[in-house]
Amino acid sequence: MPDAMIRGLFVMLISALSLQGCADAIPDRLGAPIEGYSHTSAAIRFSVNKNGGPNVGPYGGGGKQNCCATLPVKWHPGLTVVVEWEKDPDPYAYADWPKPRYSDAWRKAAREHEAKYTRHRAVVAVAPYEELGLVSVHFLPCNQVAVSAGATYPGRPDYPFKFPQKMQEPATCPTP
C-alpha cells in the first residue's frame, strides 16, 4: 500500500474518532412542563421543586402548562418531587365583595379573604414512567397529592391515575 494511501486512511480514522467526541451526550435530566388538576372545590396555586405550575380552579385543570420541573430522563424507584401549594377554600367569595373593584373596601375584603388561604408542602412519589413527558400534579381531598411525569395524560388507558374530576372532602380526614 502506498504511503499516501496509508496517510489518507490514518487521517480519516483520526477524523472519525475525533468527531465522535462531538456527538451530543444523552442528558440524565430534562425540564418537563407542569400542569395541575384540582379534584376539590378549592382553587390552587402550586409549585413542583420550586418551579411554578399554572393556577388551577375548583374541579378543573389540565390544558395550561408552565415550564418546567427538572426530572430524570429515566424513572427510578424512590423518585420524589416537592410539591408546595396554596389553597383558596372559597374561590368564588369575591362576588360578594364591596364594589367598585379595587376600592379600599374591596382591597380590605381581598386581604381578609387571602388570610384564610391554607399553605401546604409534601414530598410526593412520582409514578413510574417509561418516557419523561408532562408533569401532572393531582390535588385530592385531605391535602393528598399524586404526581405523574410520563408521556401520557389523563383519560388514556396507560395513565397511572383514574381519579374522578370531582371528589368531595370527607367529614374527617385520616391523620398521617
Quick structural overview:
With 176 residues, this protein is an alpha+beta fold.
Describe the structure.
This protein has 176 residues and is of the alpha+beta class. Helix content is 16%, strand content 33%. The protein has two helices and eight strands. The chain has helices at 3-20, 104-114, and strands at residues 29-38, 43-48, 51-52, 66-72, 80-88, 118-125, 132-140, 144-150.
Write the layout of secondary structure elements.
Layout: H1 3-20, E1 29-38, E2 43-48, E3 51-52, E4 66-72, E5 80-88, H2 104-114, E6 118-125, E7 132-140, E8 144-150
Parallel strand pairs: 1-7
Antiparallel strand pairs: 1-4, 2-3, 2-5, 5-6, 7-8
Descriptive keywords:
single chain; 176 residues; alpha+beta; four-stranded mixed β-sheet; four-stranded antiparallel β-sheet; 2 helices
Provide mean pLDDT, rounded.
Answer: 87
Radius of gyration: 25 Å
Main sheet record: 4 strands, mixed
Structural class category: alpha+beta
> How many strands?
8
User: Stretches where pLDDT falls below 50 for ≥5 residues?
Assistant: 5-19
The total count of helices amounts to 2
**Topology order in helix (H) and strand (E) letters:** HEEEEEHEEE
Strand fraction equals: 25-35%
Portion of residues within helices: 10-25%
Q: Can you tell me the overall shape?
A: elongated
Describe the strand arrangement of the main beta sheet, using strand numbers: 4-1-7-8
Q: What separation lies between the terminal Cα atoms?
A: 78 Å
